[in-house]
Amino acid sequence: MKDALSPWQPTCAEYFEKFTDGRYHEAGRHWFILAQLEILVDRCGKDLVIGSAGCDGIDFCFRQGLRGIWAYYPVEGDYVLVAANLKALEEGWLNGSISV
């Protein structure tokens, strides 16, 4: 599995060290960071999807060769950098400073 994740290293290491159980947002009633069994490679193998905004098909992902957590907006086909790492995504999502 380690070789399969090499396109997203070292950025994805934090996920596998501290976030494999996912994170649930009580107020939004959804898993904004997915559990390890739910993550997937998407968009022609370019993105490692590790979360969801819970609306409009927007997901959170690692992108090959880029640092940070990105929101992918499928309607527009755009990416937006939303956090430097998963800890910042978790804190920002829960305190409302990160939204989509």
Specify the number of helices: 2
Largest sheet: 5 strands, antiparallel
C-alpha end-to-end distance: 31 Å
Query: What percent of the residues sit in helical stretches (DSSP H or I)?
Result: 10-25%
Q: Which structural class best describes the helix and strand composition? A: alpha+beta
Shape: globular
Radius of gyration: 12 Å
The figure for the number of domains is: 1
Overall residue-averaged pLDDT value: 93
Instruction: Count the beta strands.
Output: 7
Q: Write out the strand line-up for the largest beta sheet, numbering strands in chain order.
A: 3-4-5-6-7
Residue runs with pLDDT of under 50 for 5 or more positions: none
Question: Order of SSEs, N→C?
Answer: HEEEEEEEH
The share of residues in extended strands comes to: 25-35%
What does this 3D model show about the protein?
This protein has 100 residues and is an alpha+beta fold. It has one domain. 16% of the residues lie in helices and 32% in strands. It has two helices and seven strands, in the order αβββββββα. It has a five-stranded antiparallel β-sheet. The protein is globular and about 35 Å long. The N and C termini lie far apart (31 Å).
Could you give a short description of this structure?
The protein has helices spanning 13-18, 86-95; strands at 23-25, 30-33, 40-42, 47-52, 59-63, 69-73, 78-83.
Topology (SSEs and partners):
Elements lengths: L12 H6 L4 E3 L4 E4 L6 E3 L4 E6 L6 E5 L5 E5 L4 E6 L2 H10 L5
Antiparallel strand pairs: 1-2, 3-4, 4-5, 5-6, 6-7
Q: What are the main properties of this structure?
A:
alpha+beta; 2 helices; 100 residues; two-stranded antiparallel sheet; five-stranded antiparallel beta sheet; globular
